[in-house]
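This follows on from our talk about sequence and fold. Go ahead and set the record down below:
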Amino acid sequence: MVTDISRSLKAAVATGKVKFGLSETKKAMSTGAAKLVVVSENCPDDEIRSGETKVKVVVYPGDNLELGAACGKPFAVSSLVILDQGSSDILSAR
């Protein structure tokens, strides 16, 4: 399961449009541009994970360092928002 979502995340980052960070995630959610939100297990913002949004939220089974690595980034990522999935199947995952 972790491998599937990690593979889908890498493809979305490489071929689609993805924004990283809590402020970018919240901005995309408020404007309606977000297609999917992915948060790490240790994301500090419970508001996003509460499920009271119109956007599907997936909790990545790992911490923010692992989520960053899954996206191919050399830094911690606590949340990201998919604006365009590109050639990935991330929107049908889970």
